[in-house]
């Protein structure tokens, strides 16, 4: 019987494992990917300070410490069920069933699909797949591409692709339909852009971002958005143009682009064909939380966190005794916040077993403060009002555990 099984070896899972091993807990980390590191492995961006965030190096740092502590990390192991038993859980995986007193779910996030006619053609991929191919597998995804979906994630990954010398025509919206209602709405997209505007070389976007909370200014920016887009790192970003159709016989050959009004409605007779050989679809991220559901954890819907998240408190405990969550499963934030949450979860679990509770309680409080501080200092926010979202979920926890 393990003390703790951690599902997911991203920044949250690895940081939690380090805290658990520092407390000498019998810890197993499993991950379905062939390498540990999670989404960190694909990340490469420049911070506003000018420093580079290199996810591969960050992963190495975490792994070096985990290996020093002789942490048992197993890859290509996929968990598909968590069964509650009297004194803990059985984690069902593709390899074996593992008995454990505690489980931490740190499965991260998944991409929201944004369907566009023609999206089953070879050469169409999610923006996250393009990131993994470019930065993890070092495979060139095509000669010339276009990004359908303008958001924090697609801007970051488009920049990474540019750095890898991949030619991108531009970024624009997917055409608005029942599923892409938000991703295809220029006003909603502008709200998101405003959160990364401070990173943009364009004064126009920086202006929009300065007044991110001012709806009037945002509406004006949408209305008077330049016809040729504005350029971010030399690449045009359009929010008044949308991809209506992806064309090709056996693979992507071009896209049909249309102009849209400030509400995202297609302006008739504005079609143009843009020749590309790949298309990246970027619909945003949502917490990957199914395993928490099968384990019996209640959920709370918080748009600010990216969707339905398992109910939990600041110590990353859920109302299910022995079940913990950390990282993007609790809300979409950066890798730095995920790692800090992992440390909190690890310390919470270690506290259960600690002889000296005062010492570890102090460490836990410091770790909780560091989560907040890291959130406040984050250069990129995936969703607005993340703090309010967190508060709502923590309140839901207090409601659930009321005697
Ligand atoms: C496509 C994509 C791109 C991203 N790019 C960026 C970026 O450029 N910059 C940024 O700041 N943030 C980015 N993020 C957000 C990113 O999720 C966080 O930065 C951070 O990596 C979250 O850490 P985590 O540990 O919670 O999850 P992850 O890093 O996502 O790690 C979760 C791990 O759990 C594993 N897993 C999932 N389900 C199972 C299962 N059932 N069984 C076993 N293992 C499982 C996965 O294989 C993965 O390794 C991206 C997210 C996604 C989905």
Features:
single chain; 11 helices; binds flavin-adenine dinucleotide; 21 strands; 403 residues; 8-stranded mixed beta sheet; 7-stranded mixed beta sheet; alpha/beta
**Main beta sheet, described?**
8 strands, mixed
Helix content: 25-40%
Task: List unreliable stretches of 5+ residues.
Answer: none
Mean pLDDT: 90
N-to-C terminal Cα separation, in Å?
Answer: 30 Å
Total E-strand runs: 21
Which word captures the global form? elongated
Q: Give the DSSP E fraction (strand runs of 2 or more residues).
A: 25-35%
Count of individual helical segments: 11
Protein topology:
Layout: E1 2-7, H1 11-22, E2 27-31, E3 44-46, E4 52-54, H2 55-68, E5 72-75, E6 79-85, E7 88-93, E8 97-105, E9 109-111, E10 124-126, H3 127-136, E11 144-148, H4 152-163, E12 167-174, H5 186-194, H6 203-210, H7 215-223, E13 230-232, E14 235-247, E15 254-259, E16 272-275, E17 278-281, E18 285-287, H8 290-294, E19 299-302, E20 307-310, E21 323-325, H9 335-353, H10 357-377, H11 386-400
Parallel strand pairs: 1-2, 1-8, 2-5, 8-21, 10-17, 11-12, 11-17, 12-14
Antiparallel strand pairs: 3-4, 6-7, 7-8, 9-18, 13-14, 14-15, 15-16, 19-20
The chain binds flavin-adenine dinucleotide.
